[in-house]
Amino acid sequence: NQGTPVRLKDVAVVEDGFEDQRRVQRAMGQTALGFGIKKLRGANAVQVGHDVRDRIAQLQSQAPEGIVLAVNFDSTQFIEESINEILFTLVMAALLTGIVCWLFLGSWTSTVNILLAIPTSILGTFIVMYFLGFTLNTFTVLGLSLVVGIVVDDAIMVLENIYRHRELGEGKIKAASVGAREVTFAAAATTAAIIAIFLPVAFMKGIIGKFFFQFGVTISVAVLISLLEALTLTPMRCSRFLQVGEKRGRVGLLVDRGFEKLSVRYLRVLEPALHHRAWVLAGSLVLFVASLFLIKLLPQEFVPRQDTGRFQVRYVLPIGTSLEVTNKLSLQIENYLSTRNEIDRYFGGPGGFGGGGGGDVSSGNVSVTMKGLKDRPKDPQKGRRLTQTELMDSIRRDLSGIPGGRIILSENSQQSFTSGRGSPVEFSIRGGDWDTLAAKATEIMSKLRTNGLVADVDSDYRIGMPEVQVVPDRNKAADLGISMTAIGQTINAAIGGVRAGRFKDAGRRFDIRVRLLAPQREKPEDIARLLVRTRTGGLVRLGDLVRIEQAPSLQAITRLDRERAIKIFGNIPPGVSQADAIDGALKTARELLPEGYRALPSGSSQAFGESFESLGFAFLMGIIVAYMVLAAQFNSFTHPIVILLALPFSVSGALLMLYFMGQSLNVYSVLGLILLMGIAKKNSIMLVDFTNQIRERGVERHQALLEACPVRLRPIMMTSIATIAGALPAALAIGPGAETQRSMAIGLVGGMLVSTVMTLLVVPAAYSSFDDLVNWNDERIKRGQGLVSGIFSPTPAPKTARMAEAPQQ
Q1: How far is 711 from 724, CA to CA, in rounded Å?
Q2: Confidence label for 418 from pLDDT (cuts 50, 70 and 90)
Q3: Which of 340, 317, 344 minimizes the C-alpha distance to 329?
Q4: What is the DSSP pairing of strand 563-571 with strand 455-459?
Q5: Distance between CA 559 and CA 567 in Å, rounded?
Q6: 41: burial class by Cβ within 10 Å (0-12, 13-18, 19+)?
Q7: Please, are residues 746 and 754 in contact by the beta-carbon 8 Å criterion?
Q8: In angstroms, rounded to a whole number, what is the distance separating the alpha carbons of residues 208 and 204?
Q9: pLDDT confidence of 797, banded at 50, 70, 90?
Q10: Confidence band (pLDDT; 50, 70, 90) for 127?
Q11: What is the pLDDT of residue 656?
C-alpha cells in the first residue's frame, strides 16, 4: 500500500486447518485412526493375526488414558475357523470310517488293522506337502478330509480277501501272501485311475489352477501311500494278528446275516440282468441322459457364497459433494448399523481407506464384522439367526431409502481367486470414443438396476467436478506486457494460495499460507475480478485478458488391452444364480452398445467362465487318460470301456443329490465330480479283475460273472460305504467355511450311492455284451471280414472257456 505498513489481521483472517481434511474415520461411533496390516508373501496368515493381536494387547497397556486399540476387521480369524472346521470333519470322517469298518468286519483286530492306513497316509501326505511347499489351505485340508474314506479302500480289499482265504483253511502267512497278491492288480489299477484323473487338473492355469494342483497332488499322494501301506504293512499285520473265528457281537452277526441275504437277492437280480443285457444297458443310458437335464436346473456360480461374517457398505455421492455432507450420510448409515444386534463391530467413514492424504470425499466405506453364528440373535420375522447374505439383503433394503447417495454392499467372497474387487458380476465395455462409452455405461447401469438380474450396480467411471478453464488472449496480454507466468501466478496465489512463511509452536511447525477469503473465490466470476500488474506497473482486470469456460472433468481414463474401457460391477440378488446374472448383464450390455463397441467379462466373471472351461477340459482329458492307463493295465481295449461305464452313473447320482440338497454347480462341486470319477471306477475294477481271474481258471464267462459278483459284493459295499461315511461329516458341516466343503461332499455321497448300485448290474451286463462283440470280431477275423485284429481283444481267457460259452450265446 505505497510502502505503508498494514496489520495483517486487518486484511486477513486465520482459517483453522487450512490443509483440507480429506478423511473421517470412526469405530463404533467414536473418532478413530485406522491402519491395515498385510502379511508378507510366504508368511503364515493365521500366525500373523495372532502376533498382531498379541502386540495390540501389549501396546494397549502402554497407551495413554482414553486411547483404545482394537481390531476392527480380521480376515485371518475366518481362515483359522474354517481350517479348524475342516480338521474337525477330518477327525469325524476317521471315526465314522472306523465304525463302518467295525460294523462290516465285526472284529476289533481287523478294524484296527484297516484304520492304521489313515494315520499312515495322512501323516505321510503332510510330510510330502511340507517338502513341496504346500500350505494348509481350504483345498489341501478338504482333500485330506475327503480322502479319509478312500485311503482305507485298498486295506479293506486286501484284508477282506486275506480273511476269505483264512476262512477257507489256509495258514496265516499263505493266506496273507495269496490274498494280497490276488487283489494287488485291482488295488494298483484303482490308485492309478485316481491319479490319472488329476493329471489334467494339475495343468490348469490361473490362481484357481494353483489350488487345484495342490488339491490333486494331496489326494494322489495320500492314495499312493495308502496303496503302499495296503500291499506291504497290511498283509504283514494280517499274517501276525488276524484272527479267524473271533467271537463276533450281536451287531457283527446281524451284518453277516444281512450280507448273506443281500448276496442271495443280488444273485436273483443279476441272473435276469445278464439275460436281458440290452434292456439293462438301455435303461441305464436313459437314466444318465435324463439326469443331464438337471444341469440346467442347478444354479451355477464360481464359488459358494460363504458366511464369513464380514462385509463392506460403500456409499457414493455426486462428485463435488463436500466432506460435511458425505459425513452426514455416513453417520446415518453408522447409526443404523448400531441398531443391528447381529453386528459386532463397524469401522469406516468418508474418504475410504486409501493411502496418502485421503480418498475421494464424496464417497466412503464402512467395514462390518458380524457376531459368530451362534451368538447372533434370532430374527423375529424368520424365527432363526440370519446368515450374512440375509443380513446384507435386509441392510440393502433398509438403506435404499436414504436420499442423496448410492449404497453398495459387497462381501468380496471371490476376491481371493481374482484381481480387482471380486464382485460376482464384473464386465467391461470397450470402444474408441470415451464420451460414447460413458453414455452407454450410464444407460447399461440404469437398465441393470431395473431388470432385477444384478444388485448393487456400480462402475469405475465417475464424472469429475465441473472444471473452470482459463483461456488467455495471448495477443492482448502481449500488447499490455503481461506474461502468461504472471497470469498463472495471480490465479494460483488468489485461489489456490501460496506459502508465505512458517512458524513454530509447541515444537510443531506450521505453514503460513495466504489466499483470498472463501466468499471471494467461490464463483468463476471471482477470477475475472482479479487484477494483474502490467509491465509498467498498472493494474488490469483479468476478465479483460482471459476467457473463462466451464466443463465437466474426467477423474481418469482407463484402458484394458490398449482399449478405452469402463468396468461395471454388481452383486447377485436373491434367487438368481451367478451364471444367469453374468449372462443377463452381458446380453443387456451388448444389446445397448453400438457397432464397434463390445462387452467382455472380467474379474470374477472371467474367472468363472475360464474355470468351468478348464474343469470341463480336465473332466474330458481325465476320462481319456484313465482309459489309456486302464487299457495298459488290462492289456485290452474293451475292459476299460466296461470299467468306465461306472462314471456316467456317478455323475447322475451327484447331480441328483446336488439338486435335492439345494446346492449349486461351482468349482468345488465340479472338483468333487472329478474326484468321483477317480474313485467310482474301483467297484467296476474289482468286478472285472476278479471275473478275469476266475475265467483264467477255465470257468465259462456267464458262470464266472455269477461267481465273481456276489464274492466281490461285500468289499464293494464296504469300500463304498466307507467312502460315503468319510464324506458325510463334510456334507453335513454347518461351521465356518462349510459352504465350500458341503457342495463337494454332497456330490461325492450322491455319486457313490448311485454308481455303486448301478455298477453291480450294468458292469456285468456290459462285460458280457462286449465279450460277445470280441468273439464275433474274432470269428470275422478268421474269415478275413472282421475289424483289425487285437483292437477288441480283452484280457485273454482260455480257449476252453470261450468254447464252452458257445451254448450260452
Answers
A1: 21
A2: low
A3: 317
A4: antiparallel
A5: 10
A6: exposed
A7: no
A8: 8
A9: very low
A10: very high
A11: 92
